[in-house]
# Entry
Amino acid sequence: LKAMMRDLSATQGLAEGATLLFSGGSAGGRGAMAWLDVIPRMVPQGVKVLGLLDSGYYLDIDPYTSDFSPDFMVETSLITNTMNGTALVKAASPECEAAYPGEQIWKCMYGTYRMPFVTTPYLMTAAQYDGWQLSHDVHAYAGIESSPVYTDEELAYVNTFGARTQAMATTLPSQLSTSASIYSPACYNHHISEQPNFWKTATSDNVTQYDALKTFLKADGEGVNVWIDDCKGYECGGGC
# Structure
């Protein structure tokens, strides 16, 4: 990242007065979340840094199936401890490190724990029925199921997952984040910012991800915008 920022400054004209949208989706969304508050220190003075964090808002919830192991929480803990994640947490968010010290520091690399500590203006997108998490947590499917079929018990788990995502999303932005936008439709999808559904899938109020990003950028990341569906049940959103 340091080399990339140096190259953007040296060869691509990244300089005072410019805006840099630092983004990522899925695993990249988690990475962008982890690094976002460090990026302003890597760019020339006067560059406005904004974040687009797509589908990195992972829940701390036990999988429905025991066939999915290690789960996302254990996986994140292992990666944090073996790939120098602790150093990144210390650099990016001393506040998060203080909240989750010692063996809990992995939480500062995990969506629902880390997002309240992100201070750089951001737009976070999180489908309430995240396809990547649910495909793994319910059926141990190594990817994203295109048209999952659930038993009644599985559907109860899926609905609990969606309700938790909705409830957690409404807690954002935190008091540490003075400028942030939250986009969370009650839909089953994952990382659509690079897909045609970026322009098609919408909240029940008919706001697409494109609309949300356009509003966010037009405001230069300032202020707070919240587009969160409040219906109950799998894929209940009117724009899915």
